[in-house]
Amino acid sequence: MSAAMRQGFYFLHQKNCVTDFLANTKxxxxxxxxxxxxxxxxxxxxxxxxxxxxxxxxxxxxxxxxAYVSIKAIENPNKxxxxxxxxxxxxxxxxxxxxxFSDLFLLWFPFYYVLKCxxxxxxxxxxxxxxxxxxxKRIICLFFLKHESQVDKAVNDLKDKAKETADAIFxxxxxxxxxLLGEKKKST
Length: 188
Known about the structure:
With 188 residues, this protein is mainly α. Helix content is 82%, strand content 0%.
């Protein structure tokens, strides 16, 4: 296996549940763990192209691992990992909004879920040149800083309208409950 490929799979050289499983499997089958890992990645890629529920698998990849490490980051006193995963969720949120509006058209591309999963894996890759750092620093942060006052105004307006709507709904529900109780008393 080439040095670049070994460096890309550096997490497979650390002690964790995946490497324990691969070591067990290697002991039982005498197949190199690198080939097993590549086989699993290949099977997942094929499933994303041809499998039923590819959207679910892609969402599990995009939500599952990041949610797990985000919880670990919150519980860890080191704040650097908190920033890393907050940045991931900010980029993921922007990506999800963009995907919502383009999903209808993108679903027709044959390798859509493979590309989406590749994008999400690139975003969460533990390297200094991962997608989150690149997208956040070069696009999202710049856009946000340029339009921060307008975004704050829109958010505050939406918050005020949501509060007004919730108050109106609560008042109407309260009136309906009083009327309902009043009608029940009259009928008894």
